[in-house]
Amino acid sequence: MRDGLSKMPRVYDAEAVGKRMRTIRTMLGLSQKDFAKFLGVAPQQVNQYEQGSSRPSFAVALYLKTTYGVTFDWLYAGDATHLTVGLAHRLAEVEKSL
What's the pLDDT score for residue 93? Predict the structure, then answer.
């Protein structure tokens, strides 16, 4: 049995992930339409991410990680431990303003 995995919570907070997606978009100064172009998805999909009614795909999360340095830990769990100090500070400032 994979004991370590069995102890991990299996909760996905779609609303919190949506808020973090909005935080990234706002930090970049992009509209939903422009953010959708960067991500390669329809603008409606970005809206669904931000509303928490749809999950970002692995491809979208990987793009955010490789392009902007956003970690999976932060995007999906809100854990900023592995973000660069500068990025963590900028994201926190934007979150406060939303």
Answer: 94
- Residue 17 and residue 52 in contact, taking contact as beta carbons nearer than 8 Å: yes
Alpha carbon separation from 63 to 12, 24, 41, 44, 97 (Å, rounded): 20, 12, 12, 18, 25
Q: How far apart are CA 60 and CA 38, in angstroms?
A: 10
Q: Has residue 8 got a pLDDT over 90?
A: no
DSSP 98: -
CA 63 to chain centre: 11
3-state class (DSSP) for residue 30: coil
Instruction: Measure the CA–CA gap between 26 and 13, rounded to whole angstroms.
Output: 20
Which of 53, 2, 5, 6 lies closest to 21, judged by CA?
53
Quote the tokens at residue 37.
């172009």
pLDDT per residue as tens digits for the range 18-36:
999 999 999 999 999 999 9
